[in-house]
């Protein structure tokens, strides 16, 4: 039985999230294996790998800015842990697969970003893998204000890269 690509991507991302959050850096080889299988399964193009690289870099820098502003504290590191970098790479791979249903609605992109991403960080705080520099409510509000527009930007970047790719091909 062939698994539909959005479902495979959703399951793989959630398994990676759970493993990376609960097990940390020790889970990176398993998550990397999932990611490699995913790249092979989807026959990822240079264009998609560029998107994954750009989105992951953007997210990593955002989290670093939040750490250096005192908003996030990750136990055992002054910056962000390697498991979180791995998670960003994996998250970036969802844009064209399990989150592709958002591609045609900026409103849905904004709402999903403003609701789900802050909940992910708050779950991490509840599990003590990240400390928050503000109250839970203020943290949620700040993350929602960052993630709503960020999600719209990620999909705009994806769309722009696809348009550029088509203009080179055709």
Q: Features of this protein?
A:
2% strand; 2 strands; 170 residues; single chain; 72% helix; two-stranded antiparallel sheet
List the helices and strands and how they pair.
Elements (H helix, E strand, L loop, with lengths): L4 H19 L4 H14 L4 H23 L3 E2 L8 H11 L13 H21 L4 E2 L3 H34 L1
Antiparallel strand pairs: 1-2
Helix pairs in contact: 1-2, 1-4, 2-4, 3-4, 3-6, 5-6
Q: How would you characterize the overall build of this protein?
A:
- 72% of the residues lie in helices and 2% in strands.
- It is mainly alpha-helical.
- Helix 1 (5-23) runs antiparallel to helix 4, helix 3 (46-68) crosses helix 4 (82-92) and helix 5 packs across helix 6.
- The radius of gyration is 16 Å and the shape is globular.
- The model has no long low-confidence stretch (mean pLDDT 93).
Please sum up the structure shown.
With 170 residues, the protein is mainly α. It contains 6 helices and 2 strands; from the N terminus they run αααβααβα.
Radius of gyration: 16 Å
Q: What proportion of the residues form beta strands (DSSP E)?
A: under 5%
Between the first and last Cα atoms, what is the distance in angstroms? 35 Å
pLDDT average, as an integer?
93
Content-based structural category: mainly alpha
Helix content: over 70%
**Secondary structure tally, helices:** 6
Shape: globular
In spatial order, strands of the major sheet run 1-2
Question: Biggest sheet, in brief?
Answer: 2 strands, antiparallel
Order of helices and strands: HHHEHHEH
Note poorly predicted spans: none
The total strand number stands at 2
